[in-house]
Amino acid sequence: MIDRTRLIALALATALTPVVATAQVARPTQNLAAPVKTFGRVSYDARSLMIDGKRQVIWSSEFHPFRLPSPDLWRDILQKMKASGFNTVALYFDWGYHSPKQGVYDFTGIRNVERVLAMAQEEGLYVITRAGPYVNAELSRGGFPGWLVNQKARARTDDPAYLAAVDEWLTHVNAIIARHQINGDGKGHSGSVIFHQIENELALTTPAQRRYMDHLYAKARADGITVPLFHNDQGRNGYWVPETSTVANVVKGPGNLYAFDGYPGGTCTVAGKPTRGVAAPDWGFYGPGGAKGGASASPDTPAFLAEFGGGWFDYWGSNGGYECNAVQRGKRFQRVFYGTNLANGIDIQSFYMGYGGTSWGWLPAPVVFTSYDYGAAISEAREVRSKAEEMKQLGGLIAAVPDLAGMVPAAPVQVSSPNVQAYHNRSPESDARFLMVTHKPSNGQTDDRFTITADLPDGRYTFPQAEPMRLNGFDAKWLVASVNVGGQRLVYSTSELQTALTIDRGDMMLLYGRAGETGETVLRYASAPTVTLLEGTATTAFDAAKGDLRLDYTHAGRAVVRITGGGRPALTLILADEAEAVRYWRGSDAVLVRGPALLRSTKATGGTLALTGDTADTTPLEIWAPAALRLVRWNGTAVATKTTAIGSRNATTALPGAAPVVLPALTGWREAQGSPEVTSGFDDSSWQAIDGRGSATTTAKPDGQPNLTMDSYGFHDGDVWYRGRFTGTPDAKQIALFYGAGGSGMVQVWVDGQFLGQNELPSGLPRPITTGLARFDLPASAQSGGEHVVSVMVRNNGHNWDLDSDDYHKEARGLISASIEAPGGRSFGVPIAWKIQGKLGGEDLPDPARGPANNGGQYGERVGWHLPGFDDKAWAAATIPATTATPGTTWYRTHFDLAVPKGQDTTIALAFGDTTTPRSVARYRALLFVNGWNMGQFIAHVGPQRVFPIPEGILNHHGANTVALAVTSDGAPGDAIEQVRVVTMRNVKGGVPVRMVAAPDRLGAAK
Fold first, then answer.
1. N or C terminus of the chain: which is more exposed, having fewer CB within 10 Å?
2. What is the pTM of this model?
3. C-alpha span between 843 and 853 (Å, rounded)
4. Residue 804: CB partners within 8 Å, gap ≥ 6?
5. Residues contacting 361, CB < 8 A, separation 6+
């Protein structure tokens, strides 16, 4: 039994010990005497989370299932996260994705929350659920449903109408989460959910918000959620901290844990160049403390970063920033920034995003376009980026050294270089040490050599003893010392530990470092062990007085050392450079695998070891596994192996890579004009009449004018059409349209079938302008008597988020006001009788399988031209690229077959025009439908996205496919659709089984 009081006193004493100039200064930001709080199997104190009483570092990344509308591929992402070193996944759930109409909820098909939670448990991941009601996430309305825009009650307050709407959603989703929490629901169900978030980034803290937060907390508990509850504080304000906090100037709330977010580290330039102008912040032990110091706002609870930057989103009209974002917050950044967090005692970190995916259909908020790649560890095309390989190494250390959980500041160390700093932490239970070494400041990029002098449990050491360590450029080293690994005692190493395991009572360790740098590892033995160099180069020396075995080597490829005797189990030590080390994968059993591009799973059954994973090219396979596992299978196929001199087993034949995928050219296009609404004789008798009904919009309209906003009539997403009738007068010389259209939205106008022009909202702004005023000259015919018809199409590229809790999501969309007038004359002088039509059915979806985000109000959508079952044989033959365009929308359709080799995982995309440039000279935009699914919007002259990945399950890899493009242009010369191709973005042998997503292939009668 450990004396807890003594440990606390010792930890506080070491935290406050004076420190030399090159070391970090710790402050008493956490109350290490805080009692343990228990929530079933989950508990915590000020130092860390505990599951079943065992301290844990929660190493999480974010995934949004709604941004990958092929549920079988959810498993692919979860497996890649697990393989990349994460032990937890954070899941947002989008209220609006599940509810097209008040009282209507769908949790089937692509909305099956139950399924993704079950998959996460099956793949060995803990889960953090984040169900809103508001999530932000760069979603239209921040995840609120479209119908909520019409609610006059202020959102994110205790208004009874808003709370009633919230309770509808929470009753459904909370019940699912309760069934999948680690504590179970008391009815025989359980899962791996360990935390639940009740609100996100609630920036207002009035009594109305406090009552709202109390309601959300009580609702979660009433619905059976028993794990700890939290809110995510935007930017470390000290908002909604637990009641136990004694810190001045915090805002207290009902949550059990305090969590916050942050996206430090700078951004890429518009030229696509990473920047390193910002050092990693100290938001815990070594920070400023206080309400705005991060973890210090809640001293009694463990430090918790609910979101930390794993990338950044990109905007309409940029130069395309995702690949640069993957570097900006990629290799080295992760070591420096995430390591600084860990050194600061932030044992719960979730990186946003792990996989960003696709904001398909009308999911995106105005601040983003279709791709939500985010520069994440796993790309939109589901490629495991190099940054994920580094995360595998960091996560591997966390898994191999459980002592890292709950560490506290240790006595300062001395660093020989003024340009280098070292954080030094220790475990109160085991006295194991963690040294996070980086530049001072941490964004330094000099090339420095140094030693560290530290008082460790195994003695006072200045290391390395042979030649100094090197810190070259923007980098950090995660070093451990005085730690028991398996049956070994690691005194210290200047190499980083990637993984450790025990096989047949013998230990293995994989240590790595930067290529060409020297490494030094010291192990403790009772007597001189026997050292055998099996591969590569290394030297050893044994200090009998201390019992220290010192190994010196250079990180160059691989060296393998076998150490036996000395009073410890046998040890196989692999010493590698980074490029070599990332080729290794730790299995869920006592298995280490080298070679494949991805190891998905290991399963030992009887004498057989079954491996699954991916290979891109022909790949050698090397395995360390228990001797009893005599047979090996890779993706179901038997693999012959032979034992090597270093104790591993090599496949006698390399694993095959992926076969090339032959893609067809897109030919056989057919076209049809898609804007019949512009003609005077178009039948709009079934359209809704515009009237003076009330509106909840925050956008003011001129007094006495009708309510034109699209949401008021049940049309919340995509395009909306208006037809207005007026009597010609001499004053009918101009029409002025005030409209709301989101990011890079637009309006097009016709009178009596004559195109007047279009107006587009500005692009190239990270925070876009989302409303506009446009004026068009009317033709002379409009000034003659008789009835005239004005036709207006508004492209709504999303509703604003509600990040500041100011109902910004209720800014008007569609037309706001329309005035026919003479220059210098009175506005609104010519009455207009309006009708409106948006998506088919409005809130009553004819296609619930694809859901509310799939369709807007284009004529072709309303009659089913986007669906694969539509018969387009009567359409005219067409050629793409086109040479001419017509004002309005033209639909193009074609069909093609795919025959991707069985057993391959290939990401196939649609590509428009010259993919080497972010924008075209031609001015047009296209909605792309693949087998009826709206997979995005290409705006040629705005950009930057030109390549649109289509997930398998939406795209049929083994059969027929249909592409339908709704191309909208002003009809000017050259503003016609460019070349459209199918392209391969990635191709591996392996993957997971994927079925086509069930959805209707045709609609009924036109409306």
1. N
2. 0.96
3. 11
4. 203, 204
5. 717, 850, 851, 853, 854, 855, 933, 934, 935, 936
